[in-house]
Design brief:
six-stranded antiparallel beta sheet; 2 helices; globular; five-stranded mixed beta sheet; 375 residues; 31 strands; mainly beta
């Protein structure tokens, strides 16, 4: 996904739309806690929805008892503008939100025609979704600066923003994350707005801004401020950016932040952070590789989803879903059948839902999987 790294530049991860450091070089080993595999006979994996176009994050809607999945879409043929890394980015209104009902197995689009952009490596657009008090909030990435979005024209204004999906299926922008990145640029590498994860709270929406290596807070009034800076790390003398990919509220009330870390993938370099607003994030777990999403199950146990357990650079597209107990013990919940998974959410009755085949260039090969682990 990357060209040769340089310590002061970053660009969008071509296949998943994250903005990353170009400071990492070849993969290196990292010591991780022992992973205890679950026997294959104790975990069931079922494909419950197909035909998804570049699916990413997902959420459980308790009011309708449905899984909501965002689809980044397929971009479009034109207009085009220069995006992050100098790559042409071409716009189309091809993003969508799909709802899946476990009760009857039906799935349907509840929102269509949403902003999407494609370059030669990736599709960017709708990246994550959350539901709180009946309000559906989403975040869109882009990978670039203000000139990118301006060059794509008025229909692209929703890119690099957070906002809500209205009952009519339309997107209402709330927080302009690109405007904040362009003005403040909290990480010195470059101007690159590419939000990837979010979680809603009474005070607003917290956004994992992969491009800016920050956690941003969008107030209900749409004001954007920096809530936390995600530190770089140095591996083999080279700087590797954090690239925060997801944020979730834990059972203790604190927030937990996953990171993808720089490209090319550094095996075992990705970390999980614990963060309380008003304080600096603290590393809680290490030894993961390319974490693309995280959440907590119904029993309050952490779930960590890796895009590719051997790194995105590997021809092996197998991802990994890991459960982390409160004492730090790690259990591999699933690997078989996971092909570049992109999002995970816990539903009722011990069911987990995972988006699968999420790194295509706008084709409809994406899937929604239902995973029921033992224990």
């Amino acid at each position: 996904m990357m060209s040769d790294p340089a310590p002061t530049r970053r660009r969008a991860l071509p296949a998943i739309g994250l903005a990353v450091a170009l400071a990492a070089t070849s993969a290196c080993a990292a010591t991780a806690q022992q992973l205890v595999p679950v026997a294959a006979t104790t975990t069931t994996i079922e494909t419950v929805a197909t035909g998804l176009v570049t699916p990413r994050g997902l959420a459980w809607d308790p009011a309708t008892e449905r899984v909501l999945v965002v689809e980044a879409g397929s971009g479009g043929p034109a207009p085009c503008a220069t995006g992050v890394g100098g790559y042409p980015a071409c716009f189309g209104s091809t993003g969508a939100v799909t709802a899946y009902s476990p009760a009857d197995g039906a799935s349907s689009r509840i929102a269509e025609g949403l902003p999407s952009v494609i370059n030669e490596f990736s599709v960017l657009g709708l990246h994550d979704i959350d539901v709180r008090d009946g309000v559906t909030t989403v975040v869109l990435g882009m990978g670039g600066e203000m000139s990118t979005r301006d060059g794509l024209g008025a229909p692209a204004v929703g890119l690099a923003q957070s906002g809500t999906i209205e009952p009519s299926g339309t997107f209402r922008p709330v927080g302009d994350l690109l405007a904040f990145e362009q003005k403040v640029n909290p990480h010195p590498a470059d101007v690159n707005a590419n939000a990837y994860g979010l979680v809603t709270a009474p005070e607003g929406t917290y956004v994992a801004e992969a491009g800016g290596n920050t956690v941003l807070l969008v107030s209900p009034a749409g004001e954007v401020s920096m809530a936390a800076a995600m530190p770089d790390q140095v591996i083999d003398g080279k700087t590797v950016e954090s690239v925060p990919s997801a944020i979730a509220r834990g059972p203790d009330g604190a927030y937990y932040i996953s990171e993808y870390s720089g490209e090319p993938t550094v095996i075992g370099a990705a970390r999980i952070w614990r963060w309380e607003p008003g304080s600096a994030p603290v590393v809680l777990h290490t030894g993961f590789t390319g974490v693309i999403d995280m959440t907590f199950d119904q029993r309050g146990r952490m779930l960590v989803l890796e895009l590719a357990q051997k790194g995105f650079d590997s021809p092996d597209r197998t991802g990994r879903l890991v459960r982390v107990e409160p004492d730090g013990t790690r259990t591999v919940v699933a690997t078989q059948g996971l092909e570049h998974p992109g999002g995970v959410v816990a539903g009722p009755r011990n069911a987990l839902y995972v988006t699968n085949r999420t790194t295509g260039l706008g084709d409809d090969s994406g899937q929604l999987l239902k995973i029921v682990p033992a224990g």
